[in-house]
Design a protein that fits this description.
With 306 residues, this protein is mainly α. The protein has helices at 8-18, 23-30, 34-41, 49-59, 63-68, 77-83, 89-105, 108-132, 136-153, 158-177, 185-190, 197-220, 228-253, 256-264, 269-305.
Length: 306
């Protein structure tokens, strides 16, 4: 059979190297820190039951082979079937086939959703074109089109990125079509909570953006860092970029040249507004990246200190 005295840590190391995975690769797939994988392989810590099950599925071995270190002549699908008793063969085969199907088709669910969104974009644009004879349908169909592209291009957190895209399109449309933006919420405080339709919409936009940032930090912040030094550099760079962008936006907004443009050259107001929106959104993205980098660094540092 094999070496029955092999420890769990030695087995994890053997299976990981046979899969050509680094400790960082394995840690990312299991959503733990690289230091945790190192401790498992050194037998200074033991993964919990949920992680052991994930390891078994990732390495395509039975739990007996993983925990006891019993090496079978041929691993993978055949080994799993041989290690399990007759009553569980169908369950093992189904689980294996599902894993293989996901690998081969590349998460078909999101591609199906993307295809449906593309079809909806086409139908919306066509119906509005027929009904009104204008290209307004293209604007209305744009969120469906972009979300469909995201479904095909992104493998993880598809819903989150679609939410960001829809929010961005809504924010830009309101800013240019109605003049309403998140910054309008400041007028509520300035004028002693004088509520209007515009300020209410601005409040909803502000709360929506805050929710998106929090959800993004929670989703992406749990991914461990392979290197604390690299993670610290990324965190500091992101915060410095955010501060620098605030300085650029301040100089841009208080520039005498652009004040002259807005006061005397109405034709260029759209250019000024577009640059303002771009600067605003770059600052938002820089803040989000900095927040995610900070959470990842803090969590990885705590895991290292344990």
């Amino acid at each position: 059979m094999g070496d029955k005295s092999m420890s769990l840590g030695e087995t994890i190391y053997r299976l990981r190297t046979e899969k050509n995975l680094s400790q960082g690769d394995l840690a990312e797939r299991l959503e733990v820190s690289r230091q945790s994988v190192s401790k498992w392989e050194n037998d200074s810590a033991v993964p919990d039951l949920a992680k052991i099950v994930k390891l078994s599925e990732l390495f395509e071995v039975s739990l007996d082979e993983l925990v006891k270190g019993e090496r079978t002549p041929e691993r993978g699908y055949n080994a799993v079937l041989q290690d399990e008793n007759e009553s569980s063969k169908m369950e093992v085969k189904s689980r294996y086939n599902n894993v293989q199907a996901n690998v081969q088709t590349g998460f078909p669910g999101r591609k199906i959703a993307g295809t449906i969104l593309f079809c909806m974009a086409f139908l919306v644009a066509l119906l509005i074109l027929i009904a009104s004879g204008s290209l307004l349908g293209v604007i209305v169909a744009l969120p469906f089109l972009i979300c469909g592209m995201i479904c095909f291009a992104v493998k993880k957190h598809v819903g989150l990125w679609c939410a960001w895209a829809i929010y961005l399109l809504t924010d830009i449309y309101l800013a240019f079509a109605t003049g309403i933006s998140r910054i309008s919420i400041l007028y509520v405080v300035r004028y002693m909570f004088h509520w209007t339709v515009g300020t209410i919409v601005a409040l909803v936009l502000f709360l929506g953006l805050a929710a998106l940032i929090v959800i993004t930090v929670l989703c992406l912040g749990k991914v461990p860092l392979e290197s604390l030094i690299k993670g610290k550099k990324q965190m500091l760079t992101a915060w410095i970029a955010w501060i620098g962008l605030h300085l650029v936006a301040f100089l841009f907004g208080h520039s005498a040249v652009f004040r002259y443009i807005t006061e005397h050259m109405g034709l260029l107001w759209g250019v000024y507004a577009l640059i303002s929106v771009v600067l605003n959104w770059v600052r938002v993205l820089a803040f989000t990246v900095a927040a995610v980098a900070t959470v990842r660094y803090v969590k990885s540092k705590k895991a290292t200190d344990i």
